[in-house]
Amino acid sequence: MNLHLPDTIFSALRKTPDEFVSEMRVTAAVKWYEMQLVSQAKAAEIAGLSRHDFLLALSRFNVSPFQTTPEELQKEIERD
Fold this sequence. Notes:
The chain is an all-alpha fold. The protein is built from five helices and no strands.
């Protein structure tokens, strides 16, 4: 897959093209995980990270690693 971006964005963000693409992958994976479109394992794969490093990325973006809502958690507790 090829993605054509203006050269000016790399200097504006102070990133090399490879660093920029890597950051785009991580950002997309974090957002898709946050939106519950992909699992944590799949998001880590998309990001090109280990599961541990993906959890660190979630922290960097202030995204919870838990996809359970408080209501769902309460139901789980009541069920047991």
